Amino acid sequence: MIAAILLIVLLGALAYLAAPVLAWTVGIAAWLAALQFVFHCPVPVAAWVVFAVVAAVLNIVPLRRAVFTGPVFGVFKKITPAMSQTEQEAINAGTVWWDRDLFSGKPDYNRLLSFPDPKLTPEEQAFIDGPTEQLCGMIDDWKITHELKDLPPEVWQFIKDHGFLGMIVKKKYGGLEFSNYAHAKVVTKIATRGGTAAVTVMVPNSLGPGELLQHYGTEAQKDYYLPRLAKGVEVPCFALTSPYAGSDAGAIPDYGVVCRGSYTHPRTGERFENVLGVRVSWEKRWITLAPVATILGLAFKMYDPEHLLGDKEDIGITCALVPTEHEGVEIGRRHFPGGSAFMNGPTWGKDIFIPLDWIIGGREYAGQGWRMLVECLSVGRCISLPAMSVACGKLTTYTTGAFARIRDQFGLPIGKFEGVDEAMARIGGFTYQMEASQDLALTALDNGEKPSVLSAILKYHNTERMRKTLNDAMDVHGGKTVVLGPRNYLARGYQAVPIGITVEGANILTRSMIIYGQGAIRCHPFVLREMKSAMANDGAEFDKAITGHINFVISNFVRSLWLGLTCARFASSPKGGATAAYYKRVTRLSSAFALLSDMAMFSLGGSLKFREKLSARLGDMLSGLYIATASLKRFEREGAPKEDIAVMSWAVENALYDVQVAMDGFLANLPSRGLAWVLRRVIFPWGLTLKPASDRVGTKVARAMMEPGSTRDRLTHGMYVPKSEADPVGVLEHALHAILATEPVEQKLRKLTRDGKFKAITARERLAEALQTGLINQEEFDAVTRARKLKRDVIMVDDFDKKLDQHDEQLLQRLIF
After folding, report:
1. Is 504 a catalytic residue?
2. What does the pLDDT look like over 68-82, one tens digit per residue?
């Protein structure tokens, strides 16, 4: 009996620790020897022979390859799905970081907590406090979106003069050379004031000519264009998306054929004859800044049928820089995306000749465009849209929290009704998650990483949370944000939500194909090694990878069972107190995720690529683990403030609950029902035990949003808050403090009214009567009068003359006729 228990403990320990094959061999040999010589239980010679044969096969590499891994290698090469060039380049682009730990089943929390905290330099902070603050003060979003349909000329000039278009450009070229963290915080602050200005600043610093030039441009291209981009002399756009190739950007129909031709340089007027170049035709749509761009970044497929450059005919996707004044280039028309006024429109051209030296990076980078774009996208997708989403979270947290405390119904602030406080908790909790997730990814960027998987997680989950926070904020505000006008600070963002959902990889595609599709290959410790060895026909490397992979699966199987049976109570945690249990739960779910991932690949093989619903759920698991750990990292980074325990708990508990929901859905739909049955008993031996954050925790989050305090300050830190009472956002803080300060007097007045102490009917008249009869003093009268005025300013909506303005009349005429 003791020997059997020792065997179980030994095997469990070896499996849990993912011990190498040699350790298994030594351990089992030691147990057999102990069985015979310590416990005096004779071990049959046949058992020793079987053990020796198995040990030899597993430990002697040539024998193992001949008997086991070699045949497996042959099968693996046949069943591994073929990858297109664009898929290979997408997978190879970028780097893996903390996401790899989450895929391992054993996250190293000391590593997580040791990542440096993102910080602004004094220069970056001064820019945010100075020019960025000034720019926000110049923005009148209603005037921009409703009247001008554009930024005012003085705002355009301010953006150019102060280097907003060159935040990422290095100082030696005249740019600001800000960190990715600073870039994101500038965009966030502007976006809390107006989306049009934020997008205008964001795009040139994200996926565009500036980013591509700095990484791949020739020295001549850098020396000419980067100083002009930094100072706003050039306004760039990048034309990738085609009407016929949106999400499948690699299938763009735009093409260029290598040939000899002639052209006149659009800026110098110099004529060039018989030059080697490319004759390009394109039709692009949805290109931000295209209507006003001076330089067009252009992606097209390049062909060389006459072999003027070499033996290859299909050269591949290529990126070029084309001055928009070049003969034949068409820009100027525009789209109106989602009620926003940022410049966005089509561009097209037919048989336009450009020289080879207009290719970004020159002739050597012809055909390298897709790799260039994907690598830069992994950076841009961590910054732009996630920052806009964080801005939305901050704005909705700030405005909804204040409004829900100021606005009352049935004698109570509306935020104290549980239905409203439930919606508010989501706003505050999602805001905490969004900023935590982005800040952790920005840490990676500023330390030289290009986290392509994390960028996809951020793009999808931050924009989806933006959508949810805006929906909840609109519900809480009710009629206040239904009516368009200068007082409505949410409706334009609400209208523009589909833009963020759609661009830079549509969210449906990102969730169902990209997050796990890239993550499974890039982050898994062994899958990419196995695939590369198959493509290279390297049996020796495959042998190392597959034996490690098998060990990895066994380890996660045993670990998942143990953590499930014990509910991770004995798992290690780097911290005590409020967060200890959360780290343990992440370990449990990370191990289960690694196991489910391997079982999905084992049972479905190459068909997993087409099982998008299952792939999406696996992506949800990875995303939830990332969001939970990012929230924990944020809590520690901010000093683990006790005031933030509720919002941190909401963020982590709901993220982990989302992981459990995804696992449950995955197991319910895994085609191999027998395997699903086993996995469910291993991972959830006691059933689905995780719960979302409790109502009590949610109420704490909502109350923190409604009261001035450190939690509310941290959630809204970095947004632009106008100081004027005349501003629809600025008035909220004044009204909130005034309402809180006069609440005792208002309660006194309500009691006097109930007791029949007033002859007056209206609230205004009763207030005057209270002053006249000495029930309140002049100071109290003045404070209540001011608070009530501010409250009215907060509640009121805009109204207009019933006669339509000229623009609306023209629009109506077009609709009718």
Report:
1. yes
2. 877 877 877 776 666
